[in-house]
Amino acid sequence: MIDQAFPMLLRIAFCLLAVATVPSRASEALVLHNANIYTGAADQVRAEAVLAIDGRIAFVGTSAEALRRAPQDARRIDLGGLTILPGLTDAHAHLAGIGWRELNFDLTGVESLPALQQRLRDRAAEDRISPWIEGRGWLESRRTPAAFPTRQDLDAAVTSRPVILERIDGHAVVVNSLALKIAGITGASPNPPGGEILKDPVTGEPTGMLIDRAKALVEDLVPPPTEQQIEIALVTGAKRSVQVGWTQLHYAGTTYQEIALLCRLYAEGKTSLRLYAAIGGPGPDAERLLASGGSEKSCDERLTVRGLKLYMDGALGSRGAALLAPYSDSPETQGLLVNDADEILRIAKAALRSGVQLQTHAIGDRGNRLVLDLYEQAFASVPPSQRIVAEPRFRIEHAQVLAAEDIPRFAKLGVIPSMQTSHAISDMFFAPSRLGPRRIKGAYAWRSLFDAGAIIAGGSDAPVEQGDPIVEFYAAVARRAQDGYAGADWGLDQRMTRDEALRILTIGPAYAAFQENERGTIEQGKLADFTVLSADIMKVPDAEILKTRAVMTIIGGEIMHEILTVSD
Fold first, then answer.
1. 254-293: pLDDT as tens digits
2. What is the DSSP letter of 251?
3. Is 282 exposed, middle or buried (0-12, 13-18, 19+ CB in 10 A)?
4. What class has domain 21-87+521-568?
C-alpha cells in the first residue's frame, strides 16, 4: 500500500506507471520514407529514407531503395517530408529531478514575491498531511529588486510547518523560521565546509538562505523519499524526456540504489530511454565504481554506468561559483569550493587506473581552472601505459565561465566541455551583474571553445532548465531569450551554426560517452535511434525553431512516442 502521506499527484502517477511510453506496433523492421533526413554523417549528409531491422540501421538512402530492401512484414511509414535527426541526446540531466519537478511543488516561472507567497499558501492548504512543505524552481533574477527571498518572506505565508524551497539551480535553498529552529541554525552557527549560511549584515541572524553544502543542515532533516516514490520519479522523468524528443540522457549524478530501480524498470518495460549514468561522489558508491572500473555487468543494453560525478564549486546565480576575483555585485565573496582539491586529484588518478570517466562540475573561472589543473596533474601522474583507457575523455560539466587563457586547454588536454546552451539565455538576466563587462566575455564561450578545437557535449541540466532539445538548439544558434531579447554586449559572436548545434546534441554526446561507433549519426550498422520533428529546424527562421515539436521518438527501431497520425 502507498503511504497515506503520499502526495496526490504521486498516488495518481503510481497508477499510471505502466504508461511510460507510447508502444509501437510490434515489428522487427521499420521503414521511414518520404522524409527529410539529416544524417550527421560526413559521406552522406542528407537522405530521404531509413530502414531499421532488429534495432539497428540497415539502410539509409532513397525511399524507393529502402522500400525495396524492407522485409515483407516491415512497418512502412510515409512521413510526408517531416524532418528526421539522429536520436537527440541530453549530455547533462538529472532524471529523478525531472520526475520530481513534474510531480511536486514546482515554482518555475513564479516571478514575484507575492505570487510565490500565494503559491505557498495554496500548497499548504492543498496538502495538509505532509510534515514538510518542499518546493523547487524559484528564481529571483527577474524580480525587482532581484533579491533572494528570506525566512520572513516565507513566514508571511506559512509558520505552522517547516518550509524548504530550492532555487532553480539546485545550489541554494530558502527556509522559513521554523525550519531554521528545527535545524538549530542561529546567528552563531558557523558555515560548514563548502557552504554558506547567509546572515543579515545588521542583525547577524540567518536570512533563511543556505548555499551549497549548507543546504544539508536542513535537507538532511526532511524525510527521504521511499523507494516507490523514487521509482515513480524515474519513470515520470524518462517519459517526459522521450516525449520532448530525447533518445538518451547522460544522468549527471545518481546512486546504485537508483541504478537497481532502473534495472527493474527496464525489465518490466516501464521505460526505454537510454541512459549513460555517472555515480555521484565522493562517497561509498563512488568507491564501489572505482573498484569495479565500471565493469559490473549491465542489466540492460540501454544502461551504461561508467561516469563519476564530482563538484568543484557552486552555481553563479547563488554566488557559489568559484571566481578568480570577487563578484562584481558582491565584492565580499569569490564563491565556494565544494570539495577538497586533493580529494578530487586522488579520485582522478584512481579513475584513470580503473577506466572510470570523471565528470566534474565547475562553473566559475577559478573552479574551471582548478579542475583543468587537477586533470593535468592526474594525466601526468598516470601515463597512458598505466590506464585502462588511453584516451580517458574526462569532462567538465558546465564549463560556464572561463578565463581566456584556459579556453585552449580543453582541446590540448582532451577534456570535454559538457555545456548547456539554455543557461546562457536564462542567466543573461543576472550574469552580467555577477561577472562585470570583462569576465562576461569568457562566459558561455561556445565559439571560442569550438575554434580552439574542443568537442562540446550539449545538454540541458534539467530540471534546472526546461530539458527540451528544441530550446537547447534555439539557444545555441540564437543566444537570445525566447522572446528574442539579448542584452547589450551579450556575446552574440559566440553563437553556433545550425550544423554545430546539431552536432553538440548528437555526435558530441556520443563521443563523450565513448559511443561514437554506436550512436550520434544515421549510418548503417548504428543503433536505430531517431528524433522526428514537426519542422526543419536546420532552415526555419530562429523564432520558428521554438514552435517545433518532437512528433516521434524512436529508440532501437521502436516508436516510443508519437503525437502525429502518419500513413503506413
1. 999 999 999 999 999 999 999 999 999 999 999 999 999 8
2. E
3. middle
4. mainly beta
